[in-house]
Amino acid sequence: MTTLQQAIEQAKVAGNKAFIPYIMAGDGGLETIKPTILTLQQLGVTAIEVGIPFTDPVADGPTIERAGERALAAGVTLTKVLQTLTSFRDEITVPLVVMTYFNPVLAYGLEAFAKACVAGGVKGIIVPDVPLEESALLREALNPYTIDVVQLVSLTSPPERIAHIAAASQGFVYAVTVNGITGARSRFAANLEQHFASLRQASSIPVLAGFGISTPEQVKRMGSLGDGVIVGSAIVTALHEEDMTTVAALVAASKGVFEKSTL
Length: 263
Hints:
By secondary structure, this protein is α/β, with parallel strands linked by helices. Helices cover 44% and strands 14% of the residues.
């Protein structure tokens, strides 16, 4: 069981669903990374997804794209983010998952990137522009350093592809809950329950829901479909507006979902 799987299992044992907030690293400047991560782990999150600002994102909606533009304007780069994480590694108690695109990783160098991730406490990566068929190179470079490569599965994936993605994913399966890019949604597809049931049957590791989840009610509903949730745009907006009440409410919605006596 990997570090990410252990963290998700510990949340379950505690009676909770896993909750992974997404943050845009350096939105507000590099100096914001440390207090943001330390505050989120104090709130009891399961892990933290650390987004790296990128000039040409393909999976991110306007909220995260604007946060990336702010971070890039502040001079934030992949190298600086990993160096900042390393500078307070001893204070980080939750697993970190880096979400980036392949070009910055390729420019960094896979081996050097893996070593820098280890130094910064990174336990998993998400690279959405690397398809399943090309993802072996990431696993070969990162797995020796005990870093999981998390795969995304879409609502439109046929059963045979779901099986392949579930078999290849590490740490957890990232189940995308909408067709399209990230960002808050008021409605979701009617077949989500069936889709998640198929995913959980195909996967031997936890299945977490992400994309479009922005309210405590949605955290509870989407969390009930799998093992937990990833919340991005709503967290990014709240952090940008220094609205920690909203952040705390989203995290709290994942707590006490399981009856401990039934575990």
